[in-house]
Specification:
single chain, alpha/beta, Rossmann fold, 8-stranded mixed sheet, 22 helices, 25 strands, globular
Length: 695
């Protein structure tokens, strides 16, 4: 996804600048070309030599080279890049970006940048929460920049709170998601109507409205940016189209817009009717300017054709129709009535009662309403609102494609899309080359090995993360590492990924020398590191298959269990049977125990029957998830000391709370009772379900 992409990385003066080294490395490993720009103060935290070595390009810091008189052209960099990432972004740098204070090369490059800009703030919690910083961040968002929110945790001040720069692997993931989103509507034809219509009274007067067309034009541009061929039927506005994939048809009256829409819709996959079309037109249009006469004048109006209803009447099963409703009162009731009456798939409601919404604004506040429920959005720029609307449209086609895929669909390729990182910051004064070599060896071992006899398309690969942290290291090659391993599965019809497995292994002991080749033979385990990695890979593949078919992952889960049984002689406490209810052996033994079969069946109900259907049928999907949680409760009753039941609730807690944010009190009560029995330590989280009354 990032192969061949040109990334400008701006590094400003923060203690988090040390993370820039890993960020550069990860970007380069993804195939990106990286040009680093540093502010003068950034050089106090990390050397240009380090970043130059990792990127393979000279680091730029100054406007001019004093020895030669040559200069670093920020203009050329702005044209060269596919994206700019400012990480870390200090409060000072964010303020300068917001205010256009061009006093260093990083800021001048930002001001010249033609490509998307991503900003990852890093500062102390009080600075991050200060009104001036909050305002500057909002200004950057209003300019169209992508702000990667700071994370919570321990800060350089030894305080704990929000202000940590997001981890480099997560920043890379954001970039991958951004660039992969560019073609999700490729091959689709989208019809958009925008702007007002003018209904002539005479050659100089008309009946019209205040619509600027900004919302519709933003939707057209967003669809085109995601690969769609767009036909934009525009009323009389002064806006211009920027994307060459947009075919523009200019009209003036409602009748002209109706004729154009009816002609274009049969060949379209979706129509978005955002135009403010006049419901009525003068019954008679004077051919000459009407002169003022004494007394009053009566203007007789007749109905215009209803574009939404007409398209709804001819809509085919594979077409989608999106409407808009601008209301001044009883907005939701009126929108729902329009949704049904005009055969819309969803309707976008905005109200003139909301400040900053509706006509003549660059912002809008909308609620998307479908037959499955509603989703409310805060006040945003119309460009960001367009992203929300188009993302909802994209979900229709993602779901449709998934339903059409044969179960055996496959092609050449490996099984895993794994991100592998190794953090050796705890180990001081040692040979850093060995850590670099180990990370590369692990990445090759995990991603390039065939773990199953199946073949996968690239988009079908199991997304997972292996995050190693070196706890100790000796020059003889002895390592002790911790490992956070996590896998996730996509949810049909959504950009959301649900965590299928997550576990922290506190201690893995092994030996490794630079350039050692990592080998794994399932029948002859002699390397503890590769045994651990293979164990978790089979565990994740098996659990992933369990989510797609009831008990579908048995083959690979049994492989994980065999590794755990055969690794008893490797001298690692994590394998010891009966030594703990929280080690490698116990989690696979728990999951594969006959008394825990309801847990495996829960994985299928919760994910395939529940989450995968929630987009289309929220209530039906949630009902299946509730049944899955009931199965988890049964497993807990049969085997209350099993660790795995508790483990699942820990990494699913936020997702579960969100799922039950909108449901009946009976559903809440049943689920909270079950979850509180399984994991009472999370009672404060389960209470959130009960206290949330949004239904």
């Amino acid at each position: 996804m990032l192969r061949g992409k040109r990334i400008v990385l701006g590094v400003s003066g923060s203690i988090a600048a040390y993370k820039a080294a890993l960020l550069v490395r990860l970007l380069v490993k993804e195939g990106a070309e990286v040009q680093v720009i540093m502010t003068p103060s950034a050089k106090e935290f990390i050397t240009p030599l380090t970043l130059s070595t990792l990127s393979g390009r000279p680091v730029l810091c100054d406007f001019f080279h004093s020895d030669s008189g040559s200069w670093n052209s920020h203009v050329e960099l702005g044209l060269w890049a596919d994206a700019m990432v400012v990480a870390p972004a200090t409060a000072s740098t964010i303020g300068k970006m917001a205010g256009g204070v061009a006093d260093n090369l990083l800021i001048t490059t930002y001001l010249s940048m033609k490509a998307p800009v991503f900003v990852a703030p890093a500062m102390d919690l009080d600075m991050y929460a200060h009104p001036s910083t909050v305002k500057n961040v909002e200004v950057l968002k209003s300019y169209g920049n992508h702000v990667i929110e700071a994370a919570e945790g321990e800060l350089a001040s030894h305080l704990s709170g929000k202000g940590r720069m997001e981890e480099p692997q997560n920043i890379v993931q954001r970039l991958k998601e951004f660039f992969s989103a560019g073609n999700e509507l490729k091959g689709k034809r989208v019809l958009v109507t925008a702007g007002p219509t003018y209904e002539k009274i005479d050659p100089v007067r008309f009946v019209g409205n205040y619509s600027s067309g900004k919302m519709g034009f933003s939707i057209a541009e967003e669809c085109a940016s995601r690969g769609a061929d767009v036909v934009l039927v525009a009323g009389p506005v002064s806006l211009q189209c920027n994307n060459p994939a947009i075919k523009r048809i200019d009209v003036e009256s409602a009748r002209e817009m109706y004729d154009a829409a009816m002609a274009e819709f049969p060949a379209s996959d979706v129509a978005v009717l955002s135009a403010a079309v006049a419901d009525y037109r003068p019954a008679v249009q004077a051919s000459e300017k009407m002169k003022r006469v004494s007394g009053s004048m009566t203007l007789e109006l007749e109905a215009n054709p209803d574009i939404a209803a007409s398209l709804g009447n001819i809509k085919k099963e594979n077409q989608r129709l999106v409407g808009f409703a601008l209301e001044t009162c009883n907005g939701e009731a009126n929108a729902v009535a329009k949704l049904d009456k005009k055969n819309l798939d969803f309707i976008v409601l905005n109200s003139l009662e909301d400040k900053g919404a509706g006509f003549a604004h660059d912002t809008n506040k909308v609620t998307i309403i479908s037959r499955d429920g509603k989703e409310e959005f805060p006040l945003k720029s119309k460009k960001d609102v367009a992203k929300d609307i188009v993302s909802r449209i994209s979900k229709f086609f993602l779901l449709f494609i998934m339903l059409l895929l044969p179960l055996s669909a496959s092609a050449e390729g490996e099984e895993l899309d794994a991100t592998v990182t190794l953090n050796a910051s705890k180990v001081q004064g040692t040979n850093t080359e060995v850590f670099k070599q180990l990370e590369e060896s692990l990445n090759e071992f995990i991603n390039n090995r065939k773990w199953t006899s199946n073949t996968y398309e690239e988009e079908e690969r199991l997304v997972c993360n292996f995050s190693f942290v070196v706890n100790s290291y000796s020059n003889d090659g002895s390592f002790d590492c911790s490992l956070m391993v996590q896998s996730s599965r996509p949810i049909y019809g959504s950009s959301y990924n649900s965590t299928a497995f997550k576990y922290e292994d506190k201690s893995i002991k092994f030996n490794y020398q630079p350039f050692d080749r990592l080998e794994f033979v399932e029948e002859n385990l002699d390397n503890n590191l590769t045994a651990v990695v293979a164990f978790y890979i089979y565990m994740m593949i098996g659990m992933d298959m369990d989510t797609y078919g009831e008990l579908g992952g048995s083959e690979f889960l049994n492989r994980a269990l065999n590794i755990a049984n055969n690794a008893q002689n490797l001298g690692d406490a994590g394998w010891k049977a009966g030594s703990s209810n929280n080690n490698r052996y116990s989690i696979i033994d728990d999951y594969m125990n006959g008394a825990m079969e309801p847990i495996r069946k829960m994985m299928y109900k919760y994910h395939r029957l529940g989450l995968d259907t929630m987009f289309k049928n929220a209530d039906g999907g949630r009902k299946e998830i509730t049944a899955g949680i009931a199965l988890m409760g049964k497993a807990y009753e049969d085997r209350p000391l099993a660790y795995f039941t508790k483990l699942i609730t820990e990494y699913k807690v936020d997702e579960i709370v969100n799922i039950y944010s909108k449901c009946t009190s009976e559903e809440k009560k049943s689920v909270v009772e079950t979850l509180s029995r399984i994991n009472p330590s999370l009672s404060s989280q389960w209470d959130k379900i009960t206290k949330n009354n949004n239904y």
